[in-house]
Amino acid sequence: MSKVVVGIIGAGRIGKLHAKNILLSEHYQLKAISDVDTNHLKDIDYLKAVPIITENVDDILNDPEIDAVFICSSTDTHIDFITKAARNHKHVFCEKPISFDIEKTKETLQVIKQTGVKFQVGFNRRFDTHFKKAHDVVRNGDIGTPHVIKITSRDPEAPPEEYIKRSGGLFIDMAIHDFDMIRYLSGQDVKNITVKASSLVNDCFSRNDDVDTAIITLTFADDSLGVIDNSRQAVYGYDQRIEVFGNNGMVQVENQKPTNVKVSTNASVTEDKPMYFFLERYNEGYIAEIHDFAQSILEDKPVVAKFEDGLQAELLAKAAKISWKENRTVELSEFQ
Length: 336
Prior knowledge:
Shape: globular
Largest sheet: 7 strands, mixed
Distance between the termini: 40 Å
Helix content: 25-40%
Number of strands: 15
Order of helices and strands: EHEEHEHEHEHEHHHEHEEEEEEHHHE
Strand content: 15-25%
Number of helices: 12
């Protein structure tokens, strides 16, 4: 196999982004895209190179020439598509979260193990140059033993209410990236989690049994600590920072900006605000993650963001919601 032949299921914002990056990659051949409605794809120039655009997902799942599928459809469809793809011997790349149902996710893990296909979950932040460097610094022991890991993750503006209604809530939709990142940085599983959260940005969150602001504290297996703070609205831009503090030092990643120019005068000191949108901030990560997926297939290498990582992030999201709802610390052992 010199190239991975791919089908994409779901052609919304992320599906179209992956399609564009796949078409630019020397490691892939994009054969087909499926969506429930393909009318919005007809006038997109770069998609004219795709041989099959269909509203019948079975055109992808049953095609023997397709080696791998990218599942970018709504979360409630993921389990069905993952199962069918794996049983048809297709490798699977699936956007987060794997599902909204922990038990179904666990059952699907067994399907992946039985079929032996490669599975990668779309935790693109693991592939960000800056975050990966911080991870490597920690793994190399440069800062000693980590004691505290802090993650700040704030969106520039709240999503529309229609999105909020079907998102699954802040913990599974937004903070799930941070749950994965904090495990990635620590190299450990989480023992327990405590959440304080509020609806401060917009009443539409509380109307939909959701929150827009949260402080999440975690205890890892070695009793080191983690803190995540989330907000659905940071008016100055997309706020994405991490810090790992250890007994021999500290590693930090600051916000990425359009330029690093700082202007200092007697009136003020000014510099660019953070990048405003996640597609800009993590553009390199999106490209790197599909490259890594291709390499895992072509060279039979392990994937970096495994199914088990997706499951652990889901468990943390579920525990976080319980902690918020019941106003208590939740032990992850409760889900074993």
